[in-house]
Amino acid sequence: MSPSLSRRSFLEFTAAAGGLSLASCAAAQSRRRTSGARLRHAGIGVGGMGSTDLDQIRAHAQVDVVALCDVDENNLRSAAERCPGARLYRDWRELLDKERGNIDSVHVSTPDHMHAAITLAALARGLHVYCQKPLTRTVNEARAVSRSARESGVVTQMGIQNHSNAAYDAALQLFRARHIGRVHEVHVWTDRPAGWWPQGVGRPEGQDEVPATLDWDKWIGVAPLRPFKKDTYHAFRWRGFKDFGTGAQGDMACHLMDPALWFLGLSDPLRVRSVGPRPNDETYPLWSTVHYEFPANDWTTRGPLLLTWRDGGKKVPSDLLKELGLEQIVDNGCLFVGEEGALLADPYGKPALYPAEKFGHIALPEGVARNHWFEWVEACLGRGETSAPFEYAAHLTEVALLGNVALRFPHETLDWNGGKGRFIARPDADLLLGAPQRTGWEIAELS
Ligand SMILES: NC(=O)c1ccc[n+]([C@@H]2O[C@H](COP(=O)([O-])OP(=O)(O)OC[C@H]3O[C@@H](n4cnc5c(N)ncnc54)[C@H](O)[C@@H]3O)[C@@H](O)[C@H]2O)c1
Predict the structure, then answer these.
(1) How far away, in angstroms, is 131 Cα from ligand 1 center?
(2) Within 10 Å of residue 183's Cβ, how many Cβ atoms?
C-alpha cells in the first residue's frame, strides 16, 4: 500500500489536525463491514459523474448493482441498460425504503444540494456510502454527515478520485522528503468557472415546460422550489447557483486543497478573509480570492500558515512566480512555499520542485496509483480502509465552504471557532453556515 494512503497515515492526519478525538479514531478503526461475500449496491444519481461512479463500482468483481435511481428518465434508462435486472426508481426515498434489507451500499452523485439529505438517510439505514465531492452544500450539513458517519460506523468515501492518483502520491513523497523545508504559505487555484458553467449571473426570467422525462420537483428536492428553465440548471450548469451548488471553490477545492490539508495535516482554520467581489443573490461571482490562516504545526514555520484560494483565472502572484524562476504555471494546482523552495502538487500532472536549478538533481518519484472506487468497495467487504472517509471529507469540505461564507463579507476578517463550528462574534456569518429547509423535505439531523 502506498504510504500516502494507509489507515495509519489517516490516523496520523487526524491526530495532527486535531479534527477527531482519539475515541472517534478508534471507532473509525472498527468499521462495520458487509457480512456477505458480495456487495449489493444502489446508484443514486446515475448520469454525469454518477455514470462514471456506477461504471467504476460495478467493474468490481464482487459488486452486484441491484437498484438505480435518477430523476431524469433518460439517464436512468442509460444506466439500466448497463445493469440488467436492477430495480429502477425516480425517488431516492422510495429506493431506500423499498430496498431495505436488499442493499448494502449506495453512491450519491446528484447535484451538491442533495448530498446531505440522501447521505444522511443512507447512513441512518446503516448503508456504506460513496458520496461525490463536495460532501455537502453547507458547513452545518458537513458536520451532521461527519457525526452520523462516525456513529453509524459504516464505510464511507468522498469522490475525490485524485486523492488516489499517482500524481498526488508522488507529490506527497517529495513533500515528506522535506526538500522545501518548513512551509509558510500555500497557494491553491483553479481556472473554473469561466468556460465551464455560469457564475455572476442573476436568476433567469420566466419558465420553460418541464420535459416529460424529468421530475423537476424531485430534482429541486430540499432547495426552495423555482420554475424550470431549459439548459440553465439541469444538467451540470447548476454549479454556480447558490441554492444548488457551491461555485468554483466548492466544486474544485475538494480536489485542489486536498494536498494542503492532507500533507500538512491542517486543522480548523483560525480565520478567513475574502478580497474578491461579493456574490449576487443568485450565483457565486466570476472570480474570488480568499485568504485563510491555520495554526502552525510540525510541517510549518512558526505560523500562522497562510493559505490562499483563487478561482476565475487568478493564479499564483507574478512576483512569487518570478522568485521561483517561473514564467507561468498550470491552470489548476496547489503550491507549497517553504523556507527552501516550493513544491507543486498537480492533480493532472507530475509534481515539481522550484526553483528548478536548485532541485534539478532530485529524481521525481513514481507515484503509486490506486482505484479510489475499488478501495471503498474492498473496505465495505472487510479489506482495508478508505483514504477519504467522511470524517476527513467533511473537514476538507468545511474549509472550502468557509471560503464561500467569507465571499459575502468582502475585506472583513472572520475569526472561526472550529470546536464550536461557529464564527467568533459574527452571528450574521453564522446564519450562512446552513440553509433554509423546504417544507416536506426537512432533514431531521439538521433541525
Ligand atoms: N469527482 C469528480 O471529478 C467530479 C466530476 C464531476 C462532478 N462531480 C460531482 O458529482 C456530482 C454530480 O455532478 P454532475 O456534473 O454529474 O451533475 P449532472 O447534473 O450532470 O448529473 C447529476 C445526475 O444526478 C441526477 N439527479 C439530480 N437530482 C437527483 C435526485 N434528487 N435524485 C436522483 N438523481 C438525481 C441527474 O438527473 C443526473 O443524472 C456533483 O456533486 C459534482 O460536484 C465530481
Answers:
(1) 10
(2) 26
